Amino acid sequence: MRQFAHYACFDWSGQAVARPKGLALATIAADADARPVLLRPHGGWSRGAALDWLLAHADAGTDMLIGMDLSPSFPFVDAGGYFPGWDESPADAKALWAMVDALCARDDHLGAASFVGHDQARRYFRHGKGDTGDRFGLAGTGRLRAVERQQRMTGQANSASCFNLVGAAQVGKSSLTGMRVLNRLAGRIPVWPFDPVPDSGPVIVEIYTTIAARAAGRGLSRSKVRDADGLHAALAQLGSLPPAPLLAHDDHSTDALITAAWLRDAARDAELWHGFWNPHALNEAIRVTEGWTFGVK
Prior knowledge:
Blueprint: E1 6-11, E2 24-29, E3 37-39, H1 47-60, E4 64-69, H2 93-103, H3 113-116, E5 126-128, E6 131-132, H4 146-154, H5 172-185, E7 203-206, H6 209-215, H7 228-237, H8 251-267, H9 270-277, H10 284-289
Helix pairs in contact: 1-5, 2-5, 6-8
């Protein structure tokens, strides 16, 4: 599998504001002595600015692997569809992206409130205490993608259902807003494993920052880093020098820095790298409907 000249990580956010506090971006060059760089525009990132950044690298053909901390799809294979019982349920992930983007066309800031509030779509989500859609699923956890079940089975992570919109662990809103961005890329950057990996140019993969944190020596209960010493120790574990001094060590920025360094570190191990791109449980049905989290065995 090809190497890249640069690695990047977006820590994503579904917060319904212009500039979400949880949106962060870090990059690192493949060179052994390169330091990770936290990129932060004045006032912080918006999802629109993130899309513009991605499109600029598509235009430039940058040799970069870009990890995005979001789910690019919903569970499908467990029930034979994203939204069983809804006639308009899409047939694959790219059709899902288009559907979400179309239903949310009037939402500001590439938000997704219109989708989770849609008369039919809302039935599949847990919205809050005492407000769970009748098609959310009988299990308290909610439906999981194949890769999320794999994460739980191997102990790599304790993923939440993308249909859950409640609590700190909820990922539904960030996933939906991410789908809008992926749809608007319109194929200009391949998204693995939905698209084949080209010989050159940028590629997007789904990542889960907890997996990177664990590779950096952090336990599941200590995956978040909020101080300089913890950040520098985690980066050193990944063979990376520390970044320039940060104004603050919020866990979104540190997640992005650590995960970018993790991607570069993994690429140095040929066997590990091959396994990341060729997970044994990834089949054709999963590939086109649910995708896969990069690094899940």
